[in-house]
Amino acid sequence: MAPDDLMLLVALTALTIYAIFGGADFGAGVWEFSTAFQATPRERAHLYKAIGPVWEANHVWLIFVIVILFNAYPPVFAGLSRALWVPLLLVVMGIVFRGASYAFRGASKDRPVEKSGWEILFAVASTATPFFLGTSLGAIVSGQLAITSRGEFHGDVLRDWLSPFSMFFGFYTVVMCSFLAAVLLYRESVLMGDRELDDLWRRRTLSTGLWMGLLSSVGLIMVWREAPELSTALWRTAWPLIALSIISGASAWIATWMQRATWAVGCAAIAVASVIWGWGVAQYPVLIPPDITSAAVRAPDKVLWMMLAVIGIGATLLLPALAYLFALFKHR
């Protein structure tokens, strides 16, 4: 396999891991925001306890994808930085404010007003960050970004990512995070043996799962209307992944209904992963639609092989450490 294809597989894998684990992480704050900050102290404690041990490690995967773009596909990194600097700056601000509010919340336990302020900031930042990530991805998928193969941008820095198509992807990403968080928190409450929280998050998982199914159907229609080439490729080459996503999403909902929390978490993760890989397979080898391919903007083979070697060495250290982190704090 060519080094370019291997690098794309690595980047898509990292993006998938970030969507699943980071999505569940963001979703905890989204639930605080979507309940209008009316969560009980017990619910809020459950939220923070579920994400507390591992929440900061999730951003490793986003940084990983950025480093790959910067080194392996410099014109893509340059073009997206010029075209999407506004939403990406808002993403960075959301990550920073979210981390700061999480830390300062713990240091203000004896000051209720201050603590409430940090909790509100955490919820708002947790919702805004996936929203602007989703709008950025929607702008890329739409094929409307006027980016050249040299990384130049000749469009409008506001209009090109504020389209209805991009806004839909932003809302879809937020709902996806809510669904992942709900099913994770449902499993956490089951493991804790808390029947009240168990019932609460089970109902929230079921309701959010229905919304995910509806929005996924609407998303396919919008892709068909706004990005017909991608839609054709989805049904021609990526239909098995679309089918897997539908089956996995339905299975997650059924498993939740049948009170099989661990199965629900696994199926939900597969459903999200299938969506991302379906998009990647359908769009390959295009990186920025309609016509900027990986072959046109890739770094030399020597650079790609060196990067793959470094990634392989780093993975031998990173993956066991992350596995131990999860086993240490999440094993019952």
Q: Ranges with pLDDT <50 over ≥5 residues?
A: none
Largest sheet: 2 strands, antiparallel
Q: Secondary-structure element sequence?
A: HHHHHHHHHHHEEHH
CATH topology: Formate dehydrogenase/DMSO reductase fold
Number of discrete helical segments: 13
* Helix content percent band: over 70%
Multimeric state of these chains?
single chain
Q: SS-based structural class?
A: mainly alpha
Based on CA inertia axes, which overall geometry fits? globular
Number of strands: 2
Content of β-strand: under 5%
**Count of structural domains:** 1
Distance between the termini: 41 Å
Largest sheet, spatial ordering of strands: 1-2
Overall mean pLDDT score?
88
Gyration radius, rounded:
20 Å
Give the class-level CATH name: Mainly Alpha
Give an account of the 3D structure.
The chain is mainly α. The protein has a single domain (3-309), classed as Formate dehydrogenase/DMSO reductase fold, CATH 1.20.1630. Helix content is 80%, strand content 2%. The chain is built from 13 helices and 2 strands. It has helices at residues 3-34, 41-51, 59-72, 74-83, 85-106, 112-142, 164-192, 195-226, 228-237, 239-257, 261-283, 294-297, 301-330; strands at 286-288, 292-293. It has a two-stranded antiparallel sheet. A hairpin with a 3-residue loop joins β1 and β2. α10 packs antiparallel against α11. The longest helix is centred in the N-terminal third of the chain and has 32 residues, at 3-34. It is globular, with a radius of gyration of 20 Å. The termini are far apart. 42% of the residues are buried. The mean pLDDT is 88.
